[in-house]
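During the no-cost extension, the postdoctoral fellow (Dr. R.K.) reprocessed legacy sequence entries with the updated structure-token encoder. One reprocessed record is reproduced below for audit purposes.
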Amino acid sequence: MAIHVLAVHRDTVGTEQAAGGSLAGAYSVGVLCWLLSAGIYIAAKWVSAEMPPWALCFWRVLIAFAILLPIVRHHFSEMLALVRARGLELLFIGGMGLAVCQGLIFVGLEHADATTAGIIIALIPIITMILARLMLAEPMGSWQVAGSILAFLGIVVIIVKGSPAALLRLDLNPGELWIVAGAFCFSLYTVLLRRAKFDLNRLALLVLLLGAAALTALPFYLYELASDERTTLNTSGLIALAYVAIPGGALMYYLFNRSIEALGAARAGVLLYVQTIFIAVLAYLILGEKLQTYHLEGAALIIAGLLLIILLKPKAKTAAA
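Re-encoded structure tokens follow.
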């Protein structure tokens, strides 16, 4: 999902600019990418009663891998060399970010609404920042700590639906907890990918990570086939799968990579937040979901936390000349 390509790039290439392309056109590509990504949540929720989550996850990444593979054929030699040198690392990172993360979110959508999932996913950059501080020693100032606490409180408000008594009774929606776990997995994937610094073309690297995700999701999918009664794809399941694998999969991944080339990684990544708006609107129009008071309260705390983090960044230490 969307969710799952935010950091599929190397820091060293994240600021490339598209020659001759207009800034408005570049932002349009980025916004379209996140609109397609928002549709994944709607499709997954729509067929959650008929289609098992790991089947949706496995076929999504496998089909996206198959579609994008021919596009990167000129990089096959470098891809093969990277697999031979760092295959297990690729398997773990790709499996974490593009399979486990997606699977957990799809499991969560069986019990939680898409609107709530969209708001929780907005927490990913904050979790990533905390993990980057712990694992990569990246700077994190007092305002970033305060912003993280505010955002965390926002998620708590949403999970307990604005009722502190629900927290005391441990009356929590398991679906929302699965989605939080999925957000954590993607944040960990982001940090691990940043630390790995794979020396490979961005799109070719994405294809390798999708292949790793398909291998990771396969055992979960096979277990579902053996234990879940929802094993036959009906019309709704086929439509949902076609969407999440092609417009919401291969095309969305491709557009995200194009937006990075045109805007740079930082500006392209910030557009993630429009996904939450798209999910809420589409969930209202297609699924009939409505924003509740606790959604607004939680979202307000998350936005406040994000503003503290984005606007009051810690000062980087300057290197001696």
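The first helix runs from residue 23 to 46. The chain has one domain: 20-311. The remaining legacy entries will be reprocessed before the final report is submitted.
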